[in-house]
Design a protein that fits this description.
By secondary structure, this protein is an alpha/beta fold. The protein has 3 domains: about 80 residues, Signal transduction histidine kinase, dimerisation/phosphotransfer (DHp) domain (Helix Hairpins, Orthogonal Bundle); about 160 residues, Histidine kinase-like ATPase, C-terminal domain (Heat Shock Protein 90, 2-Layer Sandwich); about 120 residues, Rossmann fold, CATH 3.40.50.2300. The protein is about 45% helix and about 20% strand. The protein has 12 helices and 12 strands. Strand 4 and strand 5 form a beta hairpin. Helix 2 packs antiparallel against helix 3 and helix 8 runs parallel beside helix 9. It starts with 7 loop residues before the first helix and ends with a helix.
Length: about 375
C-alpha cells in the first residue's frame, strides 16, 4: 500500500525560492563544515598520546559523522519531495512502542542540557496503521528542534490526547518548549529549506534548516496539519493533528536473543566497511565468513554445509557480481537452506525503488549504510537470534 502527493508547495521548495547555484553553495557549506572537523580531529588524534584526549577527539568525530549522515538523509527526502516520490508504507504501530523508541533518544538529549521533560498523556494507547519510519521522523525532528533551541535548565512539555471516531483515531500531539522562540519575520520563511534564524542558543552542527520543511510535508502527506506558534524569548509550540486508522490489536514483544556462535556471511567489496561490520559481529561472539563480491559469496555459500550459515549480509553494489544477482543465484540453488537463509541488504541506496529491488530478488530486509550497531544487532536477533 503506498501513497504519493505533491509536497513541493508544502515545503516551499521551488526554483524561484532557491536557485541551483544558491542551493549548491549552501549544500557545499553544510558538508564542508563537518568534514573539515572530521579530518582535522583525525589528524589531531593520530598525534595524540593521551587516551582521554584521544577519546574526546573520537567522540567529536562521531558527532560530526552523525550530522553528515542526517544531512544525507534529509537531502534524500527533499529530493523525493521535489520529485513527488515519497511513499508511505503503513504497518501496525502500538503507541507504547512508538513513545519508547522516541524517548530512548529524546530523554538522554534532554538530560545532557538539564532540560526538564514533562509528559501529559490523556489518551488511549491503541495500535494504529502508519509508516513507522516516517511517523518517528516527524516527532524526532520536532523534539530535537525543541531541545536545540531550549537553553540549559529549560523545560519541554509533551502533550498527547486522542479520541476514537468510527475506525480512526483523531490525535493531537503538542510539543511545547521554553526556548528562544522564532521571530515573526522568520516565521514567514521557516518552511524554506536551508533557512535558519541566527540564534545564540544552538551550537554549530546542530541544524541544517531542512527538518521542519520535511516534517510539514510528511504531516500533510498523512492527511494532517502542522501548526507552529512562537514568541521570541518565550518559546515555541508545535502541534500536529492527525487522523490515524486504528489497527487490530496486536502486540509483539521481541526479547533480546543471543547471537553467540551464529555464523554470518558478510559480502562487501570495501575492506574498511567489511572490517567494521566484522568487528561489530565478533563482539557478539558471531563467527564471520567474508566475501569481496557476489560471485565469491555464492561460492562460499555452496562450500558451507547446509544450514551452517545463519544469515547473509549482502552489499548491493559490487564489482564482478552485485548483491541482487548473487541473491537470485543463491535462492535458486538446489539445497534446503537456499530459500530459508535470511539475506539482508547493506545499501547506501535509500530510495523506495532501490528497496523494492532488494525484495524482488529475494532479500528479506535491508540495513542502511553507514551501518548502526544497534540496528545491526536488532535485525540479526530478529532473523537468526
Amino acid at each position: 500500500m503506498s501513497k504519493t502527493t505533491d509536497c513541493t508547495k508544502a515545503v516551499g521548495y521551488t526554483k524561484e525560492n532557491i536557485s541551483e547555484a544558491d542551493f549548491l553553495a549552501r549544500l557545499s557549506h553544510e558538508f564542508r563544515t563537518p568534514l573539515n572537523g572530521i579530518l582535522g580531529l583525525a589528524e589531531l588524534a593520530l598525534d595524540e598520546e593521551n587516551p582521554e584526549i584521544m577519546k574526546e577527539y573520537l567522540a567529536q568525530i562521531v558527532t560530526s559523522g552523525k550530522y553528515m549522515q542526517t544531512l544525507f538523509s534529509d537531502i534524500s527526502d527533499m529530493s523525493k519531495i521535489e520529485s513527488r516520490e515519497i511513499k508511505l508504507l503503513p504497518d501496525v504501530y502500538h503507541y507504547d512502542e512508538f513513545i519508547e523508541s522516541i524517548m530512548n533518544i529524546v530523554e538522554p538529549l534532554c538530560a545532557e542540557k538539564h532540560i526538564q521533560l514533562i509528559q501529559n498523556i490523556e489518551a488511549e494507547h491503541v495500535s494504529i496503521l502508519v509508516d513507522k519510519e516516517r511517523f518517528n521522523q516527524i516527532f524526532l525532528n520536532l523534539f530535537t528542534n525543541a531541545i536545540k533551541f531550549t537553553p540549559e535548565n529549560g523545560r519541554i512539555t509533551y502533550t498527547y490526547h486522542n479520541k476514537k471516531v468510527n475506525n480512526c483515531l483523531q490525535a493531537e500531539f503538542i510539543i511545547q518548549d521554553t526556548g528562544s522562540g522564532i521571530s515573526e519575520e522568520f516565521q514567514k520563511h521557516m518552511y524554506e529549506p536551508f533557512t535558519q534564524e541566527s540564534n545564540e542558543v544552538i551550537a554549530p552542527l546542530q541544524g541544517t534548516g531542512i527538518g521542519l520543511p520535511i516534517v510539514k510535508a510528511l504531516v500533510e502527506l498523512m492527511g494532517g496539519n502542522l501548526q507552529i506558534e512562537s514568541c521570541p524569548g518565550k518559546g515555541t509550540t508545535a502541534t500536529v493533528h492527525l487522523c490515524l486508522p486504528i489497527a487490530a490489536c496486536r502486540e509483539i514483544k521481541y526479547a533480546e536473543k543471543s547471537l553467540d556462535q551464529k555464523t554470518v556471511l558478510i559480502v562487501e567489496d570495501h575492506p574498511l566497511n567489511r572490517m567494521i561490520v566484522t568487528r561489530l559481529l565478533e563482539k557478539k561472539g558471531i563467527r564471520v565468513i567474508e566475501a569481496e563480491n557476489g560471485a565469491e559469496a555464492v561460492s562460499l555459500f555452496q562450500k558451507e554445509k547446509e544450514g551452517c550459515i545463519d544469515c547473509i549480509l549482502m552489499d548491493v553494489r559490487m564489482p564482478y557480481m552485485d548483491g541482487l544477482e548473487a541473491t537470485r543465484i543463491i535462492r535458486g540453488l538446489s539445497r534446503t537452506d537456499a530459500i530459508s537463509v535470511p539475506i539482508i541488504a547493506m545499501t547506501a541506496n535509500v530510495y523506495d525503488e532501490d528497496r523494492e529491488k532488494t525484495q524482488e530478488c529475494g532479500m528479506n530486509d535491508y540495513l542502511e549504510k553507514p551501518v548502526c550497531a544497534k540496528v545491526l544487532y536488532k535485525i540479526l536477533e530478529r532473523y537468526c537470534g
